[in-house]
Amino acid sequence: MQLFDMFGEPPQFTVHEMTLVLRSGVFLKYAAAVAVLLTAFDTHGYREAGMPLAANMLLWTVCVVAFISVYAAVVLAWFALAPGGRQLRMLRLVPNATAMAVVTVLVLAMASLFADVEFSRRVLLQHLPYNIALSYIFETLMFVFILPQADAALGLDLYRQQAASSAAPAERPPGQEPAEQQAGDAAAGFNGAAVVVLGGQSFRLDQLRYVKSEEHYLRISAGDSELTLRGRLADLLAQVPQEAGLQPHRSWWVARDAVAGLKRGGQSDLLLLADGSEVPVARGRRTHVRETVQAWLGGPG
């Protein structure tokens, strides 16, 4: 997922990385500072309308927490609309405006309980443009100054990863070869067994059961173990022979020896694995998967 606008390079992150940032000390301190600033300046004049200071502090704390929660929910919903590790780009104004619309209603409703403030559609429409502009300023400060600090503290590489992918390949020291060539050279490793390299680790091809792409990571099932490494499914597909496995879905690769059968359905098929797992079959790949499974296992598939 990328959130972008006219300010600098957009960060690129996964749901897991977003969670780590939201829980980081740098971000939590910034969120607390925003709540303190909103209380100190009280730009809507709630304290002048009779709101006690304690209630005002509670109001803006709830405002910050609600904004972050709704903002994150919008981003997660965007992820959910594109399952299978698909990379998406989103204008920051989308989650920002959505979150602030919800928060404006919440804040005005709370303010009407503690101060002489009218809770009406007219007042909501008056406050909303100002609130969106203010939240966009705070959000931009977060992306420009706070997020890089959190990125460096957590070692997530949210910005450098994107820069590296768009930059021209750097010259390699003598004797150092690309990962794909290293993988090819390693094909005779492990006592002659074919080897693939994923996320900097080597795996015997005959021990791989399946590999699933999850955003910028690969969930790898090999032998009796399962682990998650940063990588792309294309890294695997470039190294394995076509007859070694099957790609039933853009996010899955399944080894031939791991296939136990195929469960056909009216709307979709499921590839059955020897360990009892079920892998979705993309509608556009259904015919190919059925023919391949039938050739491998015999019978109707």
Characteristic key phrases:
five-stranded antiparallel beta sheet; 12 strands; alpha+beta; 47% helix; 301 residues
Written overview of the protein:
The protein is built from nine helices and twelve strands. The protein is an alpha+beta fold. The chain has helices at 15-23, 25-41, 53-80, 93-114, 121-154, 160-166, 179-185, 233-237, 286-297; strands at 2-4, 89-91, 195-198, 201-204, 208-214, 217-222, 225-230, 245-249, 252-255, 259-263, 269-273, 278-281. The protein starts with a strand and ends with a helix.
Rg over CA atoms:
26 Å
Global morphology: elongated
Strand content: 15-25%
Low-pLDDT runs: 160-192
Total of helices: 9
How would you sum up the major sheet? 5 strands, antiparallel
| H/E topology pattern | EHHHEHHHHEEEEEHEEEEEH
- Specify the helix fraction band: 40-55%
Question: Whole-Å distance between the termini?
Answer: 37 Å
Assembly type: single chain
Number of strands: 12
Strand order of the largest sheet: 7-6-5-9-8
Mean pLDDT: 82
Structural class, please? alpha+beta
How would you briefly describe this protein structure?
The chain has 301 residues and is α+β, with helices and mostly antiparallel strands. It is built from nine helices and twelve strands.
Write the layout of secondary structure elements.
Blueprint: E1 2-4, H1 15-23, H2 25-41, H3 53-80, E2 89-91, H4 93-114, H5 121-154, H6 160-166, H7 179-185, E3 195-198, E4 201-204, E5 208-214, E6 217-222, E7 225-230, H8 233-237, E8 245-249, E9 252-255, E10 259-263, E11 269-273, E12 278-281, H9 286-297
Parallel strand pairs: 1-2
Antiparallel strand pairs: 3-4, 5-6, 5-9, 6-7, 8-9, 10-11, 11-12
Helix pairs in contact: 2-3, 2-5, 3-4, 4-5
